[in-house]
Write a structure and sequence with these properties.
Number of helices: 3
CATH topology of the domain at 3-76: HIT family, subunit A
Strand order of the largest sheet: 1-2-3-5-4
Order of helices and strands: HEEEHEHE
Radius of gyration: 15 Å
Bound molecules: guanosine-5'-monophosphate, zinc ion
Distance between the termini: 38 Å
Number of strands: 5
Largest sheet: 5 strands, antiparallel
Shape: globular
Length: about 120
């Protein structure tokens, strides 16, 4: 069982923000912003690339509720999901980073030349 499946089943402790039947949100162990929460489906899905529209619709609402719960909805926030090797995905269980609590930077996602690929 993967790390986030264990967190979803509470076999590994986490600091839970919000939970329903299908989803759970908890604080990231290594926060990159004043608020850094991970929102995941309890059922294992490898990544965003495997997510269907029903799941995406439901988790979108859940993430909005998470933002409301931690009071970053009005000030603004960022939702990120990393996919695969180049996306920098370390945990192979779909998760959305919900970041906020300060003005977030938007200037340094990659050391690679942005003109390089196409
Ligand atoms: P990724 O790099 O896969 O997009 O993000 C994985 C995230 O999971 C990282 O931000 C990392 O800090 C977080 N993380 C890894 N292990 C644990 C853990 O055991 N508990 C919690 N709460 N977060 C974790
Ligand atoms: Zn899993």
């Amino acid at each position: 069982m993967c790390l986030f499946c264990k967190i979803a089943k509470k076999e590994i402790a986490s600091n839970i923000i919000l939970e329903d039947e299908e989803f759970i949100a908890f604080h990231d162990i290594n926060p990159k912003a004043p608020v850094h929460i991970l929102a995941i489906p309890k059922q294992h899905v490898d990544s965003f690339d495997e997510a269907d529209s029903l799941l995406m619709g439901k988790i979108s609402k859940f993430i909005q509720n998470v933002a409301s719960e931690v009071k970053i909805q009005k000030s603004g926030y960022r939702v990120i999901t990393n996919i695969g090797e180049n996306g920098g995905q370390e945990v192979k269980h779909l998760h959305f980073h919900v970041l906020g609590g300060a003005k977030l930077k938007w200037d340094h996602f990659s050391d690679a030349d942005p003109q390089g690929h196409f």
